[in-house]
Automatic annotation (TrEMBL):
<dbReference type="InterPro" id="IPR029058">
    <property type="entry name" value="AB_hydrolase_fold"/>
</dbReference>
<feature type="region of interest" description="Disordered">
    <location>
        <begin position="27"/>
        <end position="74"/>
    </location>
</feature>
<dbReference type="GO" id="GO:0005576">
    <property type="term" value="C:extracellular region"/>
</dbReference>
<dbReference type="Pfam" id="PF10503">
    <property type="entry name" value="Esterase_PHB"/>
</dbReference>
<keyword id="KW-0378">Hydrolase</keyword>
<dbReference type="InterPro" id="IPR010126">
    <property type="entry name" value="Esterase_phb"/>
</dbReference>
<keyword id="KW-0732">Signal</keyword>
<dbReference type="GO" id="GO:0016787">
    <property type="term" value="F:hydrolase activity"/>
</dbReference>
<protein>
    <submittedName>
        <fullName>Esterase, PHB depolymerase family</fullName>
    </submittedName>
</protein>
<feature type="compositionally biased region" description="Basic and acidic residues">
    <location>
        <begin position="58"/>
        <end position="72"/>
    </location>
</feature>
<dbReference type="InterPro" id="IPR050955">
    <property type="entry name" value="Plant_Biomass_Hydrol_Est"/>
</dbReference>
Length: 396
């Protein structure tokens, strides 16, 4: 029975993305042409000169023994000036696996930083590689300009034939293990490279956005802010079949009730969130964006259990086919929803030459970094946490 359900899930997923399949094939035929920096990055961004040699960041440590490291540059890094390293992380072993290797690509801007760099975690969608995701989003160019590092975890084809993250299955054998592996990778990179633990940000596209939701609800203390692009709402899907239903229609139940069932909202520390979605998305219905926004309004203490706003204020702006809705508290933007007219299931303002990225709409990467850069989360050291835990147990 499980095998049949798996076949149904994979077949359904293929049907969902068949709308863009022909476009993807056509794009790949032309993928060999040189990639040029596009003019729609941001009005503030300056052109970056193509780099012909790989530069290593200052004081970079040698890879740990046994790690496989590749210096092959993706096209996205070919016209960025920092270093791109492919490697794998030995994550905590999941049930039923002897090893749990998480492949990833790490981009670090060139030059010595005067202070610890922020780190942006980018989670790709189904049928994407990390090279395509880096190229299509152009996040590495923003990293060059603003001085942050970017890590791209990559789902294995051995785990899912289409490289989908199991965002709907929080068990330790599926999505729970994937979320734990990403957190373990982030912790190791912070320790190894000295990235700023108070400025770790998380962004995902489609299934990657689904996993980002799981991470933000399970490990909120790790991330200063989160971004969801074309992502599903959280809490209703428990299987592949249910996941497809949520993607096609949105959730059938109250999003606030579902988030209250999944998370202890009273104890939740809050995570600022930006949600970006195309109004012409036929893979993940736009209703998901509204529901996901409501859920993070609840998690950030802006609405009550009935969904009524109890704090902050709402500001809305409509311009050039984009609806931007901000929820502000104390002069600080806490949740933002961006709805883009005529955009399908693709990264807004991205590179048309890469599947699941579109030049339509505002530059999502620039919007996301603009939201992230003002967010910071105070982090307790491991030693402090251990002392506090010991004191609590002693008092008990």
């Amino acid at each position: 029975m499980a095998k049949s359900l798996t076949k149904i899930w994979l077949g359904g997923l293929k049907r969902l993305i068949s709308i863009q399949a022909k476009h993807a094939r056509d794009v790949k035929r032309n993928a060999a042409r040189p990639v040029r920096p596009a003019g729609k990055l941001s009005a503030k961004l300056k052109p970056v000169k193509p780099a012909t040699t790989l530069r290593s960041p200052a004081k970079r440590e040698a890879p740990r023994p046994g790690a496989r490291e590749s210096r092959v540059r993706p096209r996205a890094a070919a016209w960025a000036s920092g270093s791109w390293t492919r490697s794998f992380h030995s994550a905590p072993v999941a049930p039923g696996r002897l090893v749990n290797h998480l492949q990833y690509g790490l981009y670090v801007p060139a030059g010595a930083a005067s202070a610890p760099m922020p780190l942006v975690v980018m989670l790709h969608g189904c049928k994407q590689s990390i090279d395509e995701f880096a190229e299509g989003t152009r996040m590495n160019l923003l990293a060059d300009r603003y001085g942050f590092a970017v890590v791209y975890p990559e789902q294995s084809k051995h785990v899912h034939a289409h490289r989908c993250w199991h965002w709907y299955d929080s068990s330790d054998a599926a999505g729970g293990a994937e979320a734990r592996a990403v957190v373990s990778l982030v912790d190791e990179l912070v320790a190894e490279h000295g990235f700023d633990g108070e400025r770790i940000y998380l962004a995902g596209l489609s299934a990657g956005a689904g996993l980002a939701t799981l991470l933000a609800t399970r490990y909120p203390e790790r991330f200063a802010a989160v971004a969801f692009h074309s992502g599903p709402a959280f809490g209703e899907a428990r299987s592949g079949i249910a996941a497809m239903d949520v993607m096609r229609r949105g959730m059938r139940h109250d999003p606030v009730v579902l988030i209250d069932e999944a998370v202890d909202v009273a104890a939740y520390p809050g995570v600022p969130a930006i949600v970006i979605h195309g109004d012409a998305d036929h893979v993940v219905a736009p209703a998901n964006a509204e529901q996901l926004t409501t859920q993070f309004l609840r998690l950030n203490g802006l609405v009550d259990a009935a969904g009524e706003r109890i704090a902050g204020e709402e500001r809305e702006e409509r311009k050039a086919g984009v609806v931007m809705r901000d929820y502000v508290r104390g002069g600080r933007r806490v949740v933002r929803l961006c709805r883009v007219q005529a955009l399908g299931h693709a990264w807004s303002g991205g590179d048309d030459a890469v599947p699941f990225h579109s030049s339509k709409g505002p530059d999502a990467s620039a919007l996301i970094w603009e939201f992230f850069r003002y967010q910071r989360r105070a982090v307790k050291s491991r030693e402090t946490e251990s002392i506090a835990a010991g004191a609590a147990s002693g008092a008990a």
